[in-house]
Amino acid sequence: MTATHTPHAHAHSARLQWADGLTVFAAVTLMLAGVLDIFRGIMGIAEDDVFVSTSNYVFKFDLTGWGWIHLALGVVAVLVSLGLFQTAKWARVAGVAIAGLIVIANFLSLPYYPVWSVVMIAFSGFIIWALCVARPAGSGSEGR
Known about the structure:
Helices cover 71% and strands 0% of the residues. It is mainly α.
Protein backbone atom coordinates (compact mmCIF):
# COMPACT_ATOMS: atom_id res chain seq x y z
CA MET A 1 0.00 0.00 0.00
CA THR A 2 1.32 3.39 -0.88
CA ALA A 3 0.37 6.61 0.80
CA THR A 4 -0.84 9.38 -1.45
CA HIS A 5 -0.60 13.02 -0.54
CA THR A 6 -3.27 15.22 -1.96
CA PRO A 7 -2.53 18.86 -2.75
CA HIS A 8 -5.22 19.83 -0.23
CA ALA A 9 -3.47 17.94 2.59
CA HIS A 10 -0.13 19.55 1.70
CA ALA A 11 -1.69 23.03 1.61
CA HIS A 12 -3.38 22.37 4.96
CA SER A 13 -0.07 21.27 6.47
CA ALA A 14 1.71 24.35 5.13
CA ARG A 15 -1.06 26.58 6.53
CA LEU A 16 -0.70 24.97 9.97
CA GLN A 17 3.07 25.47 9.91
CA TRP A 18 2.56 29.12 8.91
CA ALA A 19 0.07 29.62 11.77
CA ASP A 20 2.39 27.93 14.27
CA GLY A 21 5.31 30.06 13.10
CA LEU A 22 3.36 33.30 13.46
CA THR A 23 2.17 32.31 16.93
CA VAL A 24 5.75 31.61 18.02
CA PHE A 25 6.83 34.91 16.45
CA ALA A 26 4.10 36.73 18.39
CA ALA A 27 5.03 34.93 21.62
CA VAL A 28 8.73 35.76 21.32
CA THR A 29 8.05 39.36 20.30
CA LEU A 30 5.53 39.84 23.12
CA MET A 31 8.06 38.36 25.57
CA LEU A 32 10.70 40.84 24.34
CA ALA A 33 8.26 43.76 24.47
CA GLY A 34 7.25 42.75 27.98
CA VAL A 35 10.81 42.46 29.27
CA LEU A 36 11.75 45.78 27.68
CA ASP A 37 8.64 47.39 29.17
CA ILE A 38 9.63 46.01 32.58
CA PHE A 39 13.05 47.65 32.21
CA ARG A 40 11.43 50.89 31.09
CA GLY A 41 9.11 50.73 34.09
CA ILE A 42 12.01 50.25 36.49
CA MET A 43 13.81 53.20 34.88
CA GLY A 44 10.69 55.34 35.26
CA ILE A 45 10.15 54.35 38.89
CA ALA A 46 13.81 55.18 39.62
CA GLU A 47 13.31 58.48 37.72
CA ASP A 48 16.30 57.83 35.49
CA ASP A 49 17.66 60.78 33.47
CA VAL A 50 17.16 59.04 30.10
CA PHE A 51 13.63 60.44 30.00
CA VAL A 52 12.76 63.84 28.55
CA SER A 53 10.83 66.20 30.81
CA THR A 54 7.94 67.87 29.00
CA SER A 55 6.06 70.61 30.82
CA ASN A 56 3.10 71.23 28.45
CA TYR A 57 1.76 67.79 27.66
CA VAL A 58 -1.94 66.97 27.84
CA PHE A 59 -1.41 63.42 29.18
CA LYS A 60 1.17 64.42 31.74
CA PHE A 61 1.74 61.87 34.50
CA ASP A 62 4.45 61.78 37.05
CA LEU A 63 7.44 59.80 35.71
CA THR A 64 7.00 57.32 38.55
CA GLY A 65 3.37 56.83 37.49
CA TRP A 66 4.45 56.01 33.93
CA GLY A 67 7.04 53.66 35.38
CA TRP A 68 4.41 51.68 37.28
CA ILE A 69 2.15 51.56 34.21
CA HIS A 70 4.95 50.19 32.01
CA LEU A 71 6.09 47.76 34.70
CA ALA A 72 2.58 46.34 35.07
CA LEU A 73 2.08 46.07 31.29
CA GLY A 74 5.46 44.36 30.95
CA VAL A 75 4.72 41.76 33.61
CA VAL A 76 1.32 40.95 32.08
CA ALA A 77 2.88 40.79 28.59
CA VAL A 78 5.49 38.26 29.77
CA LEU A 79 2.80 36.10 31.41
CA VAL A 80 0.59 36.22 28.30
CA SER A 81 3.57 35.31 26.08
CA LEU A 82 4.07 32.17 28.17
CA GLY A 83 0.44 31.27 27.41
CA LEU A 84 1.11 31.85 23.71
CA PHE A 85 3.90 29.29 23.81
CA GLN A 86 1.25 26.84 25.07
CA THR A 87 -1.04 27.95 22.16
CA ALA A 88 -3.84 28.79 24.58
CA LYS A 89 -6.80 30.59 23.00
CA TRP A 90 -7.10 32.96 25.99
CA ALA A 91 -3.48 33.97 25.38
CA ARG A 92 -4.20 34.91 21.75
CA VAL A 93 -7.05 37.20 22.82
CA ALA A 94 -5.09 38.57 25.79
CA GLY A 95 -2.02 39.03 23.55
CA VAL A 96 -3.93 41.28 21.18
CA ALA A 97 -5.40 43.19 24.14
CA ILE A 98 -2.09 43.69 25.97
CA ALA A 99 -0.29 44.65 22.76
CA GLY A 100 -3.04 47.22 22.15
CA LEU A 101 -2.57 48.59 25.67
CA ILE A 102 1.19 48.76 25.09
CA VAL A 103 0.54 50.79 21.93
CA ILE A 104 -1.71 53.20 23.85
CA ALA A 105 0.72 53.54 26.79
CA ASN A 106 3.64 54.19 24.47
CA PHE A 107 1.67 56.71 22.45
CA LEU A 108 0.70 58.58 25.60
CA SER A 109 4.28 58.52 26.92
CA LEU A 110 5.75 59.52 23.55
CA PRO A 111 7.22 62.86 24.76
CA TYR A 112 9.10 61.17 27.61
CA TYR A 113 11.07 58.70 25.48
CA PRO A 114 10.12 59.32 21.81
CA VAL A 115 12.33 56.95 19.82
CA TRP A 116 11.77 54.00 22.12
CA SER A 117 8.03 54.64 22.20
CA VAL A 118 7.90 54.41 18.40
CA VAL A 119 9.92 51.15 18.48
CA MET A 120 7.55 49.64 21.05
CA ILE A 121 4.51 50.73 19.03
CA ALA A 122 5.98 48.96 15.98
CA PHE A 123 6.76 45.81 18.02
CA SER A 124 3.21 45.76 19.33
CA GLY A 125 1.78 46.27 15.86
CA PHE A 126 3.65 43.18 14.64
CA ILE A 127 2.34 41.21 17.62
CA ILE A 128 -1.26 42.20 16.89
CA TRP A 129 -0.80 41.39 13.20
CA ALA A 130 0.72 37.97 13.90
CA LEU A 131 -1.98 37.00 16.39
CA CYS A 132 -4.82 38.16 14.13
CA VAL A 133 -3.54 36.69 10.85
CA ALA A 134 -2.59 33.19 11.99
CA ARG A 135 -5.49 30.82 12.54
CA PRO A 136 -4.74 27.84 14.75
CA ALA A 137 -5.84 24.31 13.84
CA GLY A 138 -9.54 23.71 14.12
CA SER A 139 -10.57 27.35 13.77
CA GLY A 140 -12.66 26.87 10.66
CA SER A 141 -10.07 28.10 8.17
CA GLU A 142 -9.72 24.76 6.39
CA GLY A 143 -12.35 25.56 3.76
CA ARG A 144 -10.55 28.62 2.40
